[in-house]
## 1
Amino acid sequence: MPDPAHTLEAGDPQDAGRRRALTRIGWTGLSLLGLASVPALIRFLRPRGWRDRGEIVELGPLAEYRSTTVSARWVQRHGLWLVRRAGRLFALEARCTHLGCTPRWVGDDAGFLCPCHGSRFDEDGVPLNGPATQPLQRLGIRVEGGEVVVDRSLRAQLDRAERDRRFYVPI
Amino acid sequence: MGGSVTREPRWLHGLRHSQVWRSVFRSGVPVQPRERLAVVLSNVFFHLHPLRIRAASLRLRRTFCLGGLSFMAFLVLTVTGILLMFHYRPTPEHAYADIQDLMSVVPFGRLLRNLHRWSAHAMVILVIAHMARVFHAGAFRPPREFNWVVGVLLLALTFILSFTGYLLPWDQLSYWAVTVGANMAGAAPVIGHNGPLALVGEDADVRALLLGGRAVGAAALLRFYVLHCVLVPGAMGLLMAMHFFRVRRDGGVLAKY
């Protein structure tokens, strides 16, 4: 049996009420602090040096792409290939439509090969074998003063891109 | 128990009566059942143990020792993992080469890495088997439902340990596996930018927080290392202590529902 003089509720009833209020204030404060630190933690963990990739990228003179079928110059930096086919230049996004790995251009016979699950795509981005079933995405492309400009905010599936002037330029 | 009395050698007698010995072991060897119970109750290493175990619960086919074996695998992984940490640097310049060194140059490095790898596979299998076993015993029903939930969390953490450890060798397999895994996280509802009901953009969703960047790189390697070596094992240690304690509390492995 605890000594009544030493229990929390002992003494002046005003005292006990104050104690309860202080406890409540304390816990409320701690809870608010905990809640407030959740967004702080998320901000802390956000990637450092995140630059918006820039939706519009300039890729040099159009003439440079006359000699190659597939230009892999911009895969590292911008995640896209420029492909010349049947008098047209278009931009393919370097992102496998299966699970988002970056395929590799391995030459005319093999096309684009994805390292993850072996999907292959031809120069048009059409899957030659699975597991990918969708063709690679096409990106918006235009020529400004002889320079190739790709607009990544514009993207389309193959069949639409073939008919839409915003997704290819004559070369 | 104490049938024949054997004479203690003099050095052992001296040791047992020294100040040092008696400061560690306050009482003598427990002989009486009552004293033995006191050890289990009061010893820091034994207090998770039950006071008594019914013979029926020791039958192999009751548990197949799956929980205990999972814990054993966790212990092996902790020991081998800490040893591997002495030779591994989680940076793109060093990670792959350090693993190659472990496999070819460091004495016992290959053994330790293989132990770590196989124990990791074993732990995943054992934990799943353990879950299946207790499911068939109705462990999700009261009074054991809380411990079932703790177990599910432990299963999830086991998978996270597996996933984060997979990146550390920093080879093609791990790089692309984690690329795919992170993309899956990015497609999760609400917390992933590609998922349904996405709350946040590409630069603050769970994928970005996990990778610390747009793609798998130096930041991702470091984050996975910290998760793999500190955060997840720490959380698992806490949950495991609760898990084992609750097994006793809820009536041991023979608990009825």
Note: Chain B has a mean pLDDT of 90.
## 2
Amino acid sequence: MRRLTYRLLVFIVALCAGLGLSVGAWASFTHSYRYSGNTSVDGASANVRGNSFNPRNNQCVLYAIVMRDFTNGQAQMEAMLPRCDDGTTIDAQCHNGFGALERLTASGVAGCDQGNSFVNDTDYYGWIQRRSSSSTIVDGGILNASLPSGADGFFLSDTTRVQGWGEATGGTACPTSAHSGHIGFFSKYLYGDGWSLVTQSNKDSDAFGFGPCWTVEAVGPNGGFDVD
Amino acid sequence: MSIDVSTRRLAIGGLTLGLALGAIGIAVARGGGDDHLAPQAAVSDMGTPGADASQIDPNGPGETSSAAIADVTAALSDAGVVSAAIVPTMQGAATDAPGVSITVKSDAGDGVWPLWLGDLAQGAIADRMRTDQQTTNQVISAGEIVDTNDGKPLTTGLGSGSVRAGQVFSSPSDAELTDRVNQVAQRFGLKVESAEVLHPMDSAVAVTFVVPDGVVDWTIDQLRAAVQGDPQSIEGFYLELRGPSGDLLLQAAGASRIGAGNLWFAPGQDERFSAVHGHAVPEPTDDAS
């Protein structure tokens, strides 16, 4: 009887450890976004506005534009307006209330550069653009900060899309109260065609751990849309 | 129905003005073909640069670029910085200031350690060259590292944040900083595997902690803040967390002079240490617009 109890105990401990590891493998975050129908873009830009944020403990809430390489690992460039819980930072350095650029490299490093401060209900111009028509480097800028992408990624034959989103990263639930933003003049860049408004876009959400937290609204006449 | 002349003129005038405004609107919305700037409306607020230090020096030392580079590469040579050189222009940078290319011998490619060394060096070179510029990226617009990368040199851009130039960090003595690290380890239930104090301009700290298995009741930001001190007294930090068997769990690094941070984590360790970061998303599904 004692041996049976012991084996049961070992089984329960192992089960809990396995469950813990499985749950721990997913970071908690959610995005709700609009993305370009075009799958071969060379840049993105928008006037990004955050109207309300209200992050939870250990959480940042942000509104951003993104250029993402869906072919090559994690390569991604993001220009954002983040607000974070007191003491919480993005990538250990970018602080609450300052614009930021973040890159995800193919080797798995998340890096950020912090821009100037921002206030709610105000538009801030963010841009992301392939360095030249033959370059695999993508540059980004917002609020007087700049950041290039990593050495690998954004190859010319890769699938690349532009996205505009509301995101909550960290924490365990959606923001405590109101959370809304606006992505204005949502635009794409194509070498040969130049800049143009994203006229064909779809909406989607991802939710890991909690969410979705936002509704993505229809595109207005100037290419802008709300996430609320 | 008849329309009098004045009404017709008014209508034509209105139509002309409307067409002109419409054309301008379309031009603004489409932007130039190869113009760097995309369609945008007026942005009225450009914000202000932040600072991690509580004290700002209104004027910098104004060193020449060669003197600043010599000072910084000498200060960081033991950590792996080999050399640095001014680059006249940096594509994609936020300002027209020159950039800097920094050669690092780490054999870690574009990993957190060589990126951190580059960020530290770029910031210290900028603040040593500074006279009265408001932000460090007005002195050095951006940077890049060239890592020796085990015989296959790899170049990675650094960019630059927009933060106050001339931040003054109180930089306690190396002994005091090492003592602080040991106290932090005790408070957080960690073991110090190694601790190193670097001096790019003031002080920066690189620590490897060993973390016991299991759930922790602190976050990486709390650990970072404890190592930085309150008020923050160092210009940079590199925190490496390893498990009891030596497995690498997480690396977090920051350089306050250019507002740059880098983060790497083994699967699930970001959640364990509440390390907040942006997320790559799966390829979206084709939902209706």
Note: The two ends of chain A are 58 Å apart (CA to CA).
